[in-house]
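Could you please consider the sequence and fold appended to this message?
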Amino acid sequence: MHARYTYWLGLVLLLGLLAPTFTYATHVRAGEITTRRVDPNRLEYEITLTTYFDELNGRIASDQTNSVDFCLGDGSIVNVPRSVRRNINSNTSINIYRFRYTYQGPGVYQISVAIEKRNDRTINLRQPSQDITFWIRTTIQVNAGLGLNSTPVLLNPPLDSARTGQRFCHNPAAFDSDGDSLAYRMAIPQESTTGAPCRGFAVNGYRDPARGIDPNAQNEARNGQATLGINPTTGDLCWDSPAVAGQYNIAFIIEEWRDGVLIGEITRDMQIIVTDSRNNRPLLDPIPDLCREAGSLIEVPIRATDPDGQRLELTAFGGIFNRNPDGTQYNPPIVPLPFATLISQPQSGTVTGLIRWQTACAHIRQEEYDVLARVVDVPGRTATQLAALQSFRIRIIAPRPQGLRATPQATATGRAIRLSWNPYTCIPPSTTTTGTSEMLVYRREGCAPLQSGTCTTGLSTSTGYALIGTVPIGTNTFTDTTGLRRGIQYSYRIVARFPPVPLGGESVVSDGVCVDLPLLAPLITQVTVDSTDNQRGQITVRWTRPIGLNPADGGAPFQYRVFRATGLTGTDFTQITAITSSLQPGVADTVFVDRGLNTQANAYRYRIDFFQTSPQGALTRVDATEPAASPRLTLNPALRQIELTWATNTPWSNDNQTHVVFRSRRGTAGPLVEVARVPVQGQPYRYTDTGNSTLAGVQSLSLSVDSNYCYRVLTVGRYTSTTAVRGLLLNYSQIACASPLDTTRPCAPRLSLDSLACDPATQQALCNQTSFSNNLRWQYPPAGQSCEPADRYNLYYSRFSGPAQSFSLVTTTPTTSFRHQSLTTVAGCYYVTAVSRRGIEGPASNTVCQDVCPQFVLPNVFTPNNDGRNDLWQPGSCSVFVVSVETVIYNRWGGRVFSTSDPQIRWDGRNSAGQEQPSGLYYYEVVVRFGGLDPSAPPVVLKGWVQLFRENGASGG
C-alpha cells in the first residue's frame, strides 16, 4: 500500500474514534478581530479578538495562552488577558480577549495579534505547521464623522468539516449593525517573525487547497477543475471539491463600505478538516430572499433531508438572532429588540424548522439582513459530521401610510382638497431629532390603478404622479390648492421619507384615494370653427351647466360671461357676451356663436366665468372654466404631397382618438370629402396627403402642382379624468389650402458635434486655455432621402439653450465640416441648413449642443505648516469654466470658521480673524456656478469634510 495513503487512512480511522468534529495538533485553529466605538465624545473603541483553540491535542498550549499582545497601529502594544474560554464541543474552545482603547486622533489604523503555534500537520502550509505564528489583523478608519461605528461581527463559528469529492461551503454570517455594505474576497493566511509581532506577511510556502495539493483535483460534478472561492456579495465560501483528506487553513477578508468609501476590513483565518468518510452531506431546500414592511411577522420555513437517513440538527445565524458564535446572547444587542427565533423539529433523515421574527420600526434600514441556515448530520462516532448551509436575505422597509382620505374643501372658489391620514407611527428612533423625516404628497389626474413591485419604496414620476408638497412626519393633514381644475378626478398617494442611511430612504407608497372637485362652474365641451374667412369667420362655443349646483338652493339669477383671447395659447381675454340663466331645463343658454372673426389667420381661445346672485342682490363670481381653443391646422407643401399638422389646446384630451381629415380640390367653396382617419397620440398631430386614400368610396389621385387643395380636420376628444361629461367631443379646425411642390428642395442635414470628454486628463489639458473650439460635421443628403443638391451650408450658433437661446449665423461654407474657433467656452448649440444653387434654404438640421463638465475636485486633507507643501486647502486641480465659487468652513460644532469668494479658496487653516485653527476635522459647503449652456441652471453645492493636520498634533476644530 502507498505510504501516504496508509498514513491518511490511519489518521482518519483515529479521528473517527474521537468525535464528529475533528482537530489534529496544537493550538490555534481560527480567529478574527472586531471593533466597535463606545464613546460618542471620544475615539474610544472596544477591541475583541475571537479565537478557536484545539483542546484535544493543544490543551497545554491553550492553557498557556492566558493573554495576548495587541498592536494598535499607532505604535502602541497592549497586553490583554483572556476574558472568555468556553468549549464549543469536546475538541474546540472559543477564546475571547477584549479591552478598550482610546485613539488620540483620526486616521487609519491596523490592529493585529500574533499567537505562537498554529495547528500541526496543516498540509497546505509548510511543515511543521506548528512552528508558524498565527497572525491576524483588522483595519479600521478612526473618524468622529463615522459615529459609533462597528466592524461587522462574524456569528457563524468556523467549525465545519468536509469530505473528499463533495462540495464544501462556509459562510461567516457577518452582520454589520450600522447597516454598512459588506464585500468579500479571498486572502492568504498570515504569519509574523520573532521580534516583529506587529508586522505580518503571507505564510511562506502556502498552497491553494483546491489545486496546490492535487493539481488534477476535480469538482463534485467531475466536469471541471476543483475551485476555491468566495462570493463577493453573499460571503458564501465554497470549495468544489476537496481531493485529499487532511487539515487545511485558508483566509478571507470582509470589507466594510459606506457611501462608496471603504472604511474598514477584517480578516478571518479558519481551518477546514477534510476526511475520506463515506458520509454524505445533508441537503437544504432552497430559501428565497424576502422583503417585508416593518411590523410584519416573518415566518420562514426551513427543511433539510439527509441522503443517509441520519439524524439532523438545524441552526441559524445572523444579526436578527442576537447570538454570539457560541450561542450566548450578544451584549449589547446588535439588532434592536425583538429578536428572531428558530423552532426546530428533528426527525430521522429530515429536520424542519421555522424562523419567526416579529419585525419592528427599529429594524428599518437600507441594507438587507443576511441570515444563514445551517444543518449538520449526526452520523455516529465512526464518520465525519458534515454540514450544509444556505444564506438568504431579508429586507425590512418602512410600511405604507394608512387611512388616506380626501375631501373637497368649501372655499370661496371650491378649488381645494383636504387630505388626512392616520398618524404615521413607524418612525425609527434615530430620526426623531434630525428634523429631516417628512411625508411626501403626490397627485395625478385620473384614478388608474398603480402597478408596483412587492419591494418597491417611494413613488416614481413614471407612474404619472407628481410631488405637490411635503409636511413634517408628525403631521397627518395636507390641503391641496395648486392648479386644481373643475371636472377632473384626482388621485392622491403619500410616502414617508427618512434620512437615507442607514434607514431605508422612503416607505412603501400608500393606497390611493380618488376625488372629484364639485362642479360649481361649467365645463366647455366645444370650440369648433363653423366657417373660415378673414373677416366673417364663425366659431360655436358650447358648455355644460354647473352639475354640482342645485338651483333650489338659491343664487338665481345666474350668469355666464364669455371671454375670448386670440391665438391657440392666447391670454388676452376680453368679455364678448353675457348670458343670464335660471338653470331651468329646456333653455338654450349654454351655447354662443361668435361671428365676425378672422378664422383664416387665427385660432381663438374661450373661457366661461360663472356668476350667481348674492343675498344682497349683487352678481358674485363663483368660478371659471378651464380655457379651450379652436383646433389650428397648418399645411406644409412638399414634393407631390402636402403635409398636415394640427394642434389643440383644451381641458379635455384629444390623444388616443381617431381624427378625420377632409379635402377639397376646388378651394373653400368646393365640397369637402373625407379622405383619411388618423389615429393620433401626442401633439402636433400629423398626416401626409399623397392623393392616395384607403377609405372605401374615395378615389385615389396624384396631387397636381397646378391645383390648390383645401383641408379641414375634425378633432375628436374626451374628458378622460371626469365622469361629469360622457361621450366624444367633436371640433372642426379652420379650412387651409396649399399646392404641392413640383421639384425637390434642400433637405435637413444630419449634424454631429465632437463631444467634450469629462475625464481628468482632458480637463487638465484645458486648464491654461483661454480660447476654445468645437468641431462640427454633417451628412448631406441624409441616408435614404431624395434632396436637391446643396451649393453651400449655413451654420447657426447660440451660446445658450432654453429660454435664453438665440441663434445667429456663424458661417456659410461649401464643405460638410467646420471648426468653430476663438470661443470663450465650449458651451453652445448649433444647427445647419442646406442652400440650393437657386438660393433656396432648406429646413434646419437637428440641433446639437455642447456643455461644460461641472468638475470641481476638493482634497480631504491639508497641512498648513508653512513648509511649502500642501499649506493651502484649494481645488485639487484647475477647474475649467467656473464662474464663481462661494466657500464656508465650519468646525465640528457647526461654528463658522472661514468664508471666501475666491475661486481658488486658498484656506490657510486660519479663521476669518487670522487665528490658527487646531488640527481636526472641519466641514465645508462650497457653492460652484459653471458657465454652461443654461444660464439659469442651479449651482453645484458640494458638502464634505477636510482634515487639518499640524506638526504639534493638537486636536480640535
Q: What stands out?
A: DSSP finds three helices and 62 strands in the chain. Helices lie at 3-16, 59-64, 760-765.
